[in-house]
Amino acid sequence: MVERLTFSLPSDYNGPVTQAKLKAEKKTRKSKPPGIVGLRSPRKLILFGWYGGKFSHLDWLLPLLPPCHHYCEPFAGSAAVLLNRLPSAIETYNDLDGEIVNFFRVLRDNGDELTRALGLTPFSREEFLIACKLDPTASPVERARRFYVRARQVRTGLAQTASIGRWANCKNTSRAGMSGVISRWLGGVERLPEIVERLIRVQIENRPAIDVIRLYDSPETLFYCDPPYVHATRGDAKAYRHEMTDEQHRELAETLNSVRGRVAFSNYDCPLLDELYPAPTWRKHKSPPRTNHATKGKRVEVLWTK
């Protein structure tokens, strides 16, 4: 008796290989761009523009930040790097600006309430004027709502520059069948739940950067430091709510040179920083040139690592 052999095709079987299929597969491989090392998702997250923020440098910057057990940003600002980085087991956001820290805390802890409030907020000059008047008696959720209105409805696109007279009204530019500024406003609010999900695992501090560095220092910690640019390297002398003098940069460098953890430090190149973060202890990485909106010229970011 002859035994009959049977077999089944794999579930992903797509017919015999042909020259046409091989050409199509080769074309597909070529069309897919290589992934960015360290990037959480191809769809990058951004909350708002921030002077000195690194959103436009993520493709260059993220591969230079190695995986770690504890990822800490002592000068986190808009958190553009943290939000788009692959999560670490422990993550710490810190900033000295109480308004932005309140925004991130409310977004993490009361995200649904804040998102609903912003969804009901019109793109309005009057709303922007109200938001520009800081009210310390307002609830944390209302303070966060007003902060986001200032950050997303300002003409310059940079949260720190929000002031009366800088509302981002639109005359002719349209996007997605509506005013361009309103389209961007609605799109930003729509993505907040995704950012809330990313922030759930992050601990949030509002302390001087050096205090945070000393508190969380360990061999398993990576500090990504993005402090205010050295004054001699930039066009805007009052871009930050909390500025840093050269002496404060020296104090920061003294701390960073003595930590047990790993450090990545962002700024523009200058003799002062070469003195504070010398080779061969520190390695310099230079970004591709990008247009700087303040000086209108091409600038190169530098990352010092150790």
Secondary-structure element order, N to C: HHEHEHHHHEEHHEHEHEHEEEE
Give the low-pLDDT segments. Answer: 1-13, 28-33
Strand content: 5-15%
What structural category characterises the helix and strand content?
Answer: alpha/beta
Q: From the alpha-carbon coordinates, what is the Rg to the nearest angstrom? A: 24 Å
Explain what you see:
There is one protein chain. The protein is 36% helix and 14% strand. The chain is α/β, with parallel strands linked by helices. The protein folds into 2 domains: 156 residues, Rossmann fold; 102 residues. A hairpin with a 6-residue loop joins strand 9 and strand 10.
Labels describing this entry:
two-stranded antiparallel sheet, 306 residues, alpha/beta, 2 domains, Rossmann fold, seven-stranded mixed β-sheet
Give a brief outline of the structure.
With 306 residues, this protein is an alpha/beta fold. The chain is built from 12 helices and 11 strands. The strands form 3 sheets. It has a 7-stranded mixed β-sheet with strand order 5-2-1-6-7-11-8, with helices on both faces. A two-stranded antiparallel sheet has the order 3-4. A two-stranded antiparallel ribbon has the order 9-10.
Outline the secondary-structure elements.
Blueprint: H1 19-31, H2 58-61, E1 70-73, H3 80-84, E2 90-94, H4 98-109, H5 111-119, H6 125-132, H7 140-153, E3 174-175, E4 178-179, H8 180-190, H9 192-199, E5 202-205, H10 209-216, E6 221-225, H11 246-256, E7 262-268, H12 271-276, E8 283-286, E9 290-291, E10 298-299, E11 301-305
Parallel strand pairs: 1-2, 1-6, 2-5, 6-7
Antiparallel strand pairs: 3-4, 7-11, 8-11, 9-10
Helix pairs in contact: 4-5, 4-7, 4-9, 5-7, 6-7, 10-11
